[in-house]
């Protein structure tokens, strides 16, 4: 998922405002996914003591499903 493209310099002010709004929405969606992945990476490091490696692929599939569901609805 990439951020929206920048409008050219001669675009109307409402185009620039719409881009800023879209950029903010994009970063808000992305930060939740990034935090989930970071938390999961920290959790993954602890698995050698917790012995839960068998659940790791299912968890990644669940995170990817949440991301793809978000992309479809937006």
How large a portion of the residues is in β-strands, by DSSP E?
Answer: under 5%
Low-pLDDT sequence parts: none
CA-CA gap between termini: 11 Å
State the total count of DSSP E strands.
Answer: 0
Give the helices and strands as they follow along the chain. Answer: HH
Radius of gyration from CA coordinates: 18 Å
Q: Write down the overall geometry.
A: elongated
Percentage of residues in helical conformation? over 70%
Give the overall average pLDDT: 74
- Provide the number of structural domains: 1
Count of alpha/pi helices:
2
| Major β-sheet annotation | none
Structural class estimated from helices and strands: mainly alpha
How would the blueprint of this fold be written?
Layout: H1 13-50, H2 56-73
Helix pairs in contact: 1-2
Model description:
The protein is mainly α and 74 residues long. It is built from two helices and no strands. It has helices at 13-50, 56-73. The protein starts with 12 loop residues before the first helix and ends with a helix.
